[in-house]
Amino acid sequence: MSQVPLLLRVREALEKRCGISPGQRLLLAVSGGSDSIAMLHLLLELVPKIHLELEVGHFDHRLQKSSTGDREFVERLAKEHGVPTHVGEWADPTPSEEAARTARYAFLLGVAEERQCAAVVLGHHLEDRLETLFLRLGRGSGLRGLAGLRWRRPDRVAIVRPLLGCQHAELEGWLEDRALPWRHDPSNDDLRFARNRLRHVMLPALEDLGPGWRKRAQESLEDLGAAWDWMQAQASEVASRTDTSGALGRDDLKELPDLLLRTVLQSWLEDRGIKNLRREHLEEVAHLARNGHNGQMSMLPGAVRCHVEANRLVLAIAQVPETT
């Protein structure tokens, strides 16, 4: 672990990595677990030093019997420190990690917009970053996914993660040294979930790589993130060269390396509202860009058709045959 005091590292991360400036209002997501509670206490110390405004957001997923106690704990703690608190509740809980994440983020971003916050602060740490990397590897993620969790991610309101350079053990140790309590979520011990198996089985096994492997892995993730940022900047510039109808000329695409071509096409398609793109979609459109003949087409999510027309890639909504 780093010899630099935790508070100084988090302050530097907030200002340099996360782009937080004096005078801004932040919404901190607090579940009641050790990571978000550590982030809360660290921010409480930093707020007067860098002149920030802090509010707390807590989302009750209603999936555990202990969730009411978690909510009460967070509300009580925030009240003790005079921090405004916003509580949301999942109206239709389902045992799906992805659905829970979607509901939680929707709540947090909605509150942050309403309260005119500059950013939503999350308590993700280094192990969260590593777990996300392995999960995305298993799902066949591209370079963007392999870059993993980022210090700052643009959204309706920016999402920032000042603890990405910190380890879970040092956050709990910091709380224990100060006798600061937190809540334990029993679902984090359930090995039916892939992330928990990574946390409790795979990451401990990687200790055989020797001391400092987490730091080396973090440096590699930073390099991946920088590579993606460069690639995305190049791709966005090419993808912006559309005609007045939004069609993309093929002359700029044919000689691009495969990875850059797929990134250009992903940027072009996502800018036009096409989501849930898989690698096979991008490879099909890449084939059209390089070798497609006039009229050749590929179907994309949302009943969108991409076809070749006059040496351009053109998008159109596919016609659904009428039923009689």
Major beta sheet summary: 6 strands, mixed
Stretches where pLDDT falls below 50 for ≥5 residues? none
Structural class: alpha/beta
Q: What is the number of domains?
A: 2
How large a portion of the residues is in β-strands, by DSSP E?
5-15%
Alpha-carbon distance between the termini?
Answer: 69 Å
By CATH, the architecture of the largest domain is named 3-Layer(aba) Sandwich
Helix content: 40-55%
What CATH first level of the largest domain would be assigned? Answer: Alpha Beta
Overall mean confidence score, pLDDT: 92
Biggest β-sheet: strands ordered side by side in the sheet: 3-2-1-4-6-5
User: What general outline do the C-alpha atoms trace?
Assistant: elongated
Radius of gyration: 23 Å
Can you tell me about this structure?
48% of the residues lie in helices and 14% in strands. It is of the alpha/beta class. The protein has two domains: 6-219, HUPs (Rossmann fold, 3-Layer(aba) Sandwich); 240-317, Uridine Diphospho-n-acetylenolpyruvylglucosamine Reductase, domain 3 (2-Layer Sandwich). The strands form two sheets. The protein has a six-stranded mixed sheet with strand order 3-2-1-4-6-5, sandwiched between helices. A four-stranded antiparallel sheet has the order 7-10-9-8, covered by helices on one side. Helix 2 packs across helix 7 (168-177) and helix 5 (126-138) packs across helix 8. The longest helix has 27 residues, at 213-239. The radius of gyration is 23 Å and the shape is elongated.
